[in-house]
Structures are given as C-alpha cells and as structure tokens.
Amino acid sequence: MGIVKISDQMHDNLRSASDALSRSINAQAEHWMRVGMLCELHPALSYGDICQLMLRAAQSNEPALSFMKPVPPSPVAARTPRRAAR
User: What is the 3-state secondary structure (H, E, C) of the chain?
Assistant: First the structure.
C-alpha cells in the first residue's frame, strides 16, 4: 500500500462521489482507478460493459477482466508449421 498525491479538486470530487455512492473515499478512488485502467486496456468496452463484468466477477469470485493487455498471437507464428523434435 502506498500514498498517492492528488489535487485538491480531485479530492473534492472523490468526497462528493463517495458520499453519493455510499463508498469510502479510498474505495471510490480505487473504483475509478480500476475502471480507468480497464477502459484503457479494453477500449472496445463501454463503461457499462466494464461495470457489468465487474459485478459478475464479484458475484462469482472470479476476475472480471485481465489487468494485463491481451497480446494477440503473432500472424507469423500462426502460419509457421511446427517441426517435430529431433
């Protein structure tokens, strides 16, 4: 765990959102960071899609989305046949 410095304006926004959504300020900040990170890693998904996946994951105790950016298979590797070990 560490300390993150944020602007006074962002702290005020966190306080307002945390009050409105019945979360602690830390929980609200973590939610925004998680959603923002997932949005950057999965730009094809909407905010609603990400929230639905997070809800499903919480209900099933499984991760909603990978926090690692998916790496597509190399087109060269897909076309190159494997050779038998000698």
Answer: CCCCCCCHHHHHHHHHHHHHCCCCHHHHHHHHHHHHHHHHHCCCCCHHHHHHHHHHHHHHCCCCCCCCCCCCCCHHHHHCCCCCCC
